[in-house]
Amino acid sequence: MKKIVFCCLFALSTIGAWAQPEPPKGQPRFDPAKFQQMVEESLTKAAELTADEAKAFFPLYTEMRKKQREMGRQIHDLKKNAPQGDCKACAETITKIKRLQVEMAELEESYYQRFLKTLPAAKVFKVMKAEDDFHRRMVQGQRQGKRPEGQPRGQR
After folding, report:
1. Residue 54: which residues within 8 A CB-CB, separation 6 or more?
2. What's the rounded Cα separation, in Å, for the pair 124 and 54?
3. Are 24 and 112 a contacting pair, CB within 8 Å?
4. What is the Cα–Cα distance from 79 to 90, expressed in whole angstroms?
5. Which end of the chain is more exposed for a tag (fewer CB within 10 A), N or C?
6. How do residues 48-95 score in pLDDT, each as one tens digit?
7. Alpha carbons 50 and 12: distance in angstroms, whole number
8. Domain ranges in the chain?
């Protein structure tokens, strides 16, 4: 009987180890710098940006995305820590979330106006489309359980 219990426990622990693959040693599961590089390469190629255009555009783009991520984190935190059962507190939280969403849209609008000062409108549009395509490929790759084209090994 002890052998059966031991074998079952061993089998369960082995299955658990297979279910959560570890990244290769010394390599993080997600490398933000590598991801940023992939985004820049993809957008540069799709929008046919010259080296000078990319040099002028990507600092603005990165700055905008950083601010959007921060606002997104604030929204996430508000939703995560939402009050339970208190209608007045819930209404205040909804108001804060909606205000942040409006601010995020206004932020994006102001940056797109700045983008138009550094790039022709046709290239800004290509960047917008390429960004959507890039993120769609990344999501599809994760759904299919494989690495999207251009994604470094060891990441999912």
Report:
1. 40, 44
2. 11
3. no
4. 10
5. N
6. 999 999 999 999 999 999 999 999 999 999 999 888 888 898 999 999
7. 54
8. 34-143
Helix (H) or strand (E) holding 10: helix 2-19
Tally of residues, the chain:
156
For 34-143, CATH number? 1.20.120
- As a whole number of angstroms, the distance between CA 149 and CA 133 comes to 12
User: What is the rounded distance in angstroms from the CA atom of residue 79 to the CA atom of residue 46?
Assistant: 36
Tokens of 114: 């700045």
**Which DSSP state fits 74?**
H
The SS3 of residue 48 is coil
User: What DSSP state is assigned to residue 20?
Assistant: S
pLDDT tens-digit readout, 93-122: 999 999 999 999 999 999 999 999 999 999
